[in-house]
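Fig. S4 source data, part A: sequence.
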Amino acid sequence: MRVEILRPVMISGEPASAGSFAEVSLADAQMLIGLGKARKAEEPEAAKPEPKPEPPAEAAVKPKRTRSTAPKE
């Protein structure tokens, strides 16, 4: 799980400074979040799929009127 480090902490014997991001196990993430030393991080921008561009709108064409609106005699 990706977490953002809020306060300096040691993770698996390695120092992690505040403001950095770390990929840790779910158990470690829960412990760090519970201690107030980390929070769940958003997915990095590169990992998010880009939205597909919308196809260009077709020009709206009014159908030609085939019937007459005049009353029949």
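Fig. S4 source data, part B ends here. The chain has a mean pLDDT of 82.
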